[in-house]
Amino acid sequence: MSARTPSPDATLQAERDHLHRSRADLRAMREHTLSLTAQSGDHVSTEYLKAALYRRAKALEDDPSIPLFFGRIDRVTGDDAGVDVGADTGHDDSRETFHIGRRHVMDADGDPMVVDWRADVSRAFYRATRQDPHGVVLRRRYGFAEGELTSYEDEHLLDRTESDVTSRILTEEIERPRVGPMRDIVATIQPEQDEVVRAGLDTTVCVQGAPGTGKTAVGLHRAAYLLHTYRERLARTGVLVIGPNQAFLHYIEQVLPTLGEVDVRQVTVAELVERVPVRTGDPPDVATLKGDARMAQVLTRAVWSHLAEPDETLYVPRGSRRWRVPVHEVAESVATLRARGDGYATGRALLGQRLAHRVLLRMEAAGEVTDDRIQNTIARSRPVKSYVDTVWPAVDPVRVVLRLLGDPEFLASAADGVLTPAEQAMLLWKRPARGPKSARWTHADTVLIDEAAAIVERSSGVGHVVLDEAQDLSPMELRAVARRAGAGSLTILGDIAQGTTPWATPSWPEALLHLDRAEAHLEVLRNGYRVPAAVVDFAARLLPTIAPDIEPPEAVRSNPGTLDVVEADGDLLGAAAKHTAEAVGRDGSVGVVVADADADTVAAGLAGAGLEPGRLGDDAPLTIVPASMVKGLEYDHVVVVDPARIVAAETSGLRRLYVVLTRAVSSLVIVHAEPLPSELDGVAAPR
Ligand SMILES: Nc1ncnc2c1ncn2[C@@H]1O[C@H](COP(=O)(O)OP(=O)(O)OP(=O)(O)O)[C@@H](O)[C@H]1O
User: Which segments of the protein form a coiled coil according to its record (predicted)?
Assistant: First the structure.
């Protein structure tokens, strides 16, 4: 072995030394931050500085269980670029070495010990290939056990004699058992995923990806990337992550903090729009209609119908004089304001000023001295205010929707030519509510109220929105999300085949239209990191029926997985308990997925058999999961109890079943009493 290629042991030791030095440097950075005193001219700035220092010190805390770096690239600079170099370490002036980790660490001289994975130089770590090496001579990946560096793997990208081998470290990461909440994937982001992660802040990306292709992971890493790369812009405007339900948010909530981002709001669509308490649900056809984009038109008309035709002269007494603004001038002001395209409330606020200005012009013509203060006083005067109240009255979005759903005439006037009479009849409450407090609001109503509120008052959005499971949103929900993004960009993630709501989007171009982002780029992720081949093949039997145009994922798992289909012999619960117990005895998490209505019975059955099933959100090793809540989650071992009952429970039952079957990381057991859906017939032989 030459001097330039140290023994593997020496290399490993050199890397361990680098890790220890990096940890020491990180400690020093943190101590330095803690030694700073926040002092500024005023109290508010001092408090702000204190908070910033606290956050910084927090971000610099070292978690010994998480390696400080996971990879390294060596690049050649200048004349040596392009030369075949096989050496691993050793000093070479024309080489630059970068250790890549979750955050930046520098030594006492300010030189980088670890480079943040989001920095520009780190891009090559993720993208370099032998065909396009990005100047990378060496790419090294590290294996860790409990925070200590235990192995490394090298690729010499310029060495033409070396051929591609599947990375063991990468494989182990993809194959590791899934226990507890979702983890970050910074060490192993794949090139096609990295393209999405590093798309610029001004780019809206829509990602179609089959189950387990990493959409959620990619969306969260993109949020972290954007927050790092556009720190200042996003510090003002923020990033919002929207997911389908609390269980899902709980599952993903640790990813961004692990990546050092603690200030990201993560909400469900329901939380996003809830201004009134939701008391009940709508039948599917009514909810679908309420979610139809035509409702936006109806609401626009309903809100603006409050604008009245001016038909009286405005008189404004001041001192001994009385100024008048004739009807046609008021009408002109109203028309100009209406044409500006502002929110209803902005127009109303401006009308007072416009009318006051007209009075001012008359006062000036009569030789009076005027200024802005006088205009403001007139705008706030009783006659002007009450005139504005008549012509452009205040509107409460909740009451607008209340009236639309309770007053057939009001609805008819707003919906004429937009909704058919039969549709209008569907929307009306059987018994109109007495007031906003007693109304039996549904989620779809809250989305309508949100739209009405936006027609009344525009609000600015955040800098970036990550929308997960986007295929399930109604057009009206998509509009509500688009409003949160304002002029900012979005990452839209989803899978058409997993659309389970009656209003699920039929295609991405259509969803993008409602999101007001028709120009957005559509990316397709194909490689599946969750579901093993045996399970993919089985679940894919549903695709020709539920989404003929959608391809199944290409499983990149080395574990082929196992699939068992078990017909219960009269004792469904007993069979479910037996197979669950078997799964519990293996490595990793177990999810028992059942039709929602069966959750309690199955939980009791398992408990009776001595198992201890937890509920969603408990992070227990064994969880009972109602089928409607399983979207986005994954378990090493999935036991599905009676698929036919899951299918029968809802209109998009087969799509729900597709979601359920694609949660398994290692093994899938289907225990059934009722016959399987015919699409799944011809089941693979038991393992
Ligand atoms: N590059 C990667 N390296 C390692 N693991 C990965 C990678 N990409 C994805 N995974 C893992 O694959 C699993 C599935 O990822 P994720 O949940 O993001 O997929 P998804 O496309 O959102 O799936 P679904 O549509 O079913 O919700 C997760 O455990 C994730 O950590």
Answer: none
